[in-house]
Amino acid sequence: MTAVISSEQKAHVITSDAEAIAIAKELAAEFVKGDSERDRDRRLPYEEVKKFSASGLWGITVPKEYGGAFVSNATLAKVIKIISEADPSLGQIPQNHLYMVEAIRLDGTEEQKRFFFDLVLQGKRFGNAFSEIGTKSVTDVRTRLEKSGDGYVLNGRKFYSAGALLAHWIPVIASNDEGKTVIAFVERDAEGLTLLDDWSSFGQRTTASGTTILENVKVKSEHVIPHYLAFERATPMGAIAQIIQAAVDVGIAKAAVRDTIDFVRKHTRPWVDSNLEHGYEDPLTIYNLGQVQIQVHAAEALLKRAGEFIDRANASGLEEPKVVAASIAVAEAKALATEASLLATNKLFELAGTKSTLQEFNYDRHWRNARAHTLHDPVRWKYYAVGNYFLNNVNPPRHPWL
User: Are 76 and 34 in contact (CB under 8 A)?
Assistant: First the structure.
């Protein structure tokens, strides 16, 4: 892994929304060719990730004053959707990198912004060591960042570390001496940092979302960001995290619809009672395909709308009502994206028929990816937040999961 990272060249710098979308489409056309094989063989996408970050797409949310394009959040969501339709693991891998860019934008010092944004524009990738298993809840952080001389020492164990094996820096969520949540940026080759490729989920198999072990890892004070500040005031921090997740789910749904149509057109036989020549003429198949397509188009529309709400919140100077509205809009998008992805990936087999279950097609990867990825944040709590907001004027909680 070290050789793969060290041999990389400086990334292209994207300058506009249109360029970002065009490059995403170009990469997606390439990435989709190996999607099924990577999943079947659980081959981590080393070369694909290098091309992905070298394209400049991992730097599109860097603010303009630091050399980035600072694309709209509608564009950000569209880029992730496009890549995820080709390969949802590749769509998910930069999620926490982009989350970190937003964290730096909101709460980094001027020196941190210049330093880290420059790294991003060079093509450096941030992985993540956020979540832990075996704790009471996702907010229970046992990893500790303790003061040591002029800097800090980091100790803990993380899981779900998507993209960490493919990253140059590993941002770590930890509790400081005051019990507050901070982000400590650790370089990939830091002494005491161990990354394990032990991700065994049936879905999103090539995200390398395994274990991160931190044993007395030294951290410079200038590499620590007070992340708790992002949730002590109204910010789009959680909305940014969630809109990317929603975009991945929409991409999965679109891939399932694409393969459903292709298979039904080429292979599916008409049911015996239909008295038709081709499977694609079956009126019940046509009806059901239409139902799925409408759901996916609706999820796409809500995804774009959610991005626009975040953009308006940013343009307002982060007025609380607009930030809250953005969080609710993203929750709506994530809820429908979940439903659409599960529906589309399940209907693929119902409409395509028994032959579509053969291993040679590997279509079950769509359902596996949708089922695994949509578990990240319970959709039932999205509905609750939306309903409570509109019915009782209750603002949603401030955290990364909404």
Answer: no
